[in-house]
Amino acid sequence: MSVNINRTDQKRVVIVGGGLGGLRLANQLKDSNLQVVLIDKNNYHQFPPLIYQVASAGLAPSSISFPFRQIFRKRKNFYFRMAEARAVFPDKKILQTSIGKIDYDYLVFAAGATTNFFGNKNVEEWAIPMRTLSEAMGLRNALLSNLERALTCATEEERQELLNVVIVGGGATGVEIAGAISEMKRYVIPYDYPDMDASHMHIYLLEAGDRLLAGMSQEASEKALKYLREMGVDVQFGKMVTDYRDYHIIIKDGTSIATRTFLWVSGIRAQPITGIEGDKLGRGFRILVDGCNRVPGYDNIFAIGDQCLMTADPAYPKGHPQLAQVAIQQATQLAENLKKLSQGNADLKPFHYNDLGSMATVGRNKAVADLGKVRTQGFMAWMLWLIVHLRSILGVRNKLMVMLSWAWQYFSYNVSIRTIVYATKPKMIRERIKREQTTHLGEDLMQEE
């Protein structure tokens, strides 16, 4: 079965993934003579830097998500299909998806990364990742449900398991969610749960390395550590988690921590795709690309952002950091190259990353920022973080919602989105998804052959 999209005399670019890179690429191609087809398993774009605020009940999910069809509704040469990419057949120029196959002239993988559990099945089964909006909502439900259960559980041992929060991974996400939950403990629990002793809630941040925010300066790492410890977070270094059994985190040094709120933000791996495998993959299962983001051996297949590994840039011989700015800049450059290719010009411009800096927020008035040679912490860094992220959110309505939510929280010390909602799917949708998941890869192609 083929995906029903009208073919025109325009060459077709298929973009897999509507994250920051995929969205920028689609936008940059709006004035080209190319037909653009965007494929994503969700029907909305999500803003990853603020996902942790959804998880800690600080923002509504709709504040950081935006429907693709609304973004591109005035585009005549654009098509969106909600589907998962399953496999690519380069010799036939066909991408197999969960809703059928689609042919392409140029194919771009921009599906980003997923959580890396490093082969640990127990951790994968029980830990709560935080890469997507749905995972963030799952964490929010878990946090709030465990607080409710802690008031009614039968034993002190179970109560402590429910009140202990363990976060594994000391990168920006780990630091930000630890700070957000700490503020939740300080400002929410005493008022929402007056019959609970908030001092019994413990927040642990475990890092296998020797410092937080390894991609930032030493000064930023030390300041973030100071902030978190002042906020009551128990930060521990050299702690490699090896297992999770009987509601206990098992650490390599033989120690353990009891918890039923186990967050895993320790690593990521590129989204896999059948057909691009073996020697075409590098560290973290990232697709190897040349200096123009093209997959070696294929003239018309590209990869950008977290899903690719480019070692051709002399400044980054081991590949670029998996940051939003890398994906956005690669998308911008690739758009220009695709326009050239569509016009018969094979003189492509290689990509060079312009590092605009990094920042992370820890809590109210507490953040760290490395912006080139300028390094700042505290209130100024926090204000910069707010401005940068507010500008990056799509849609005037979403910007206003986030700004008003932040202002309300700042002056009231209170967040209001503390509902526990478990989504359920109608039976017919569950059955359709089940059928799609059992469909053999490339079945349509084999039938035709």
Automatic annotation (TrEMBL):
GO terms for molecular function: NADH dehydrogenase (quinone) (non-electrogenic) activity. It catalyses: a quinone + NADH + H(+) = a quinol + NAD(+). Residues 12-331 form the FAD/NAD(P)-binding domain. It comes from the Bacteria. The keyword Nucleotide-binding does not apply. Residues 356-410 form the External alternative NADH-ubiquinone oxidoreductase-like C-terminal domain. Its EC number is 1.6.5.9. Keywords: FAD, Flavoprotein, NAD, Oxidoreductase, Transit peptide. The keyword NAD applies. Belongs to the NADH dehydrogenase family. This is NADH:ubiquinone reductase (non-electrogenic).
